[in-house]
Amino acid sequence: MKMIALIDYNMGNLRSVSNAFDKIGSHVEIVKDPNKLKDFDKIVLPGVGAYKDAMRSLKSNGMQEAIIEFAKSGKHLLGICLGMQLLLESSEEFGFTQGLGLVEGNVKKFNKLQFNYKLKVPHMGWNKLFVQTNSKLFKDIDREIYLYFIHSFHAICPEKFIVGKTFYGYDFASAIEKENIYGFQPHPEKSHVNGLKILKNFVKL
Predict the structure, then answer these.
(1) What CATH number has the domain bearing residue 113?
(2) Which of 84, 132, 168, 203 could be bridged to 79 by S-S, CB 3.0 to 4.6 A?
């Protein structure tokens, strides 16, 4: 059985993510010690809250370096919500903050007046993700699926890394992929059948 680490850095709803993996018959182990990551086949980086606080927490005990080394090994890494944003190079939330830099791009706040479309921020609730590529994470999944979102900032990155888009006043990257690194802005663990399918496909990688 492939071992999956769920990273605990005091910035994510670990229980809901862990319960979602239990529902698909895959156990995850909650890990706080960065030295243990190398023992796992896959890792999941969840996240809820502020980007700056998250990076500060990851740096505090060496978890930042451990995640980067894990990604360099070619093993699979999944970032969820804030966890996806942390995969990028930087964020403008509460001033500039450097991210993990595993995927080119940065994180910006929703432009409330983009195209004269007045947005409510945060973007919260069910919305469509439009599949852009034949990513393995979308195996046996429709090209348009509803997933659950809650966020005020979104990723901006090169088109070649965007595997899913969502419209909220304008199109933004809601799923990214670069080699062995994957990210989802919505919460698969809160998205019922479609979300569980995504997690199941991640387990099968």
Answers:
(1) 3.40.50.880
(2) 84
Which residues form the catalytic set? 81, 187, 189
Taking only the tens place, the pLDDT of each residue in 44-96 is 999 999 999 999 999 999 999 999 999 999 999 999 999 999 999 999 999 99
State yes or no: cis peptide before 122, omega within 30 of 0: yes
Integer Rg of the chain from CA: 16
SS3 category, 69? helix
CA distance 160 to 63: 28
Residues 6 or more apart whose Cβ sits within 8 Å of residue 153: 51, 85, 91, 92, 93, 107, 108, 109, 110
Q: Please give the Cα distance from 160 to 15 (Å, whole number).
A: 33
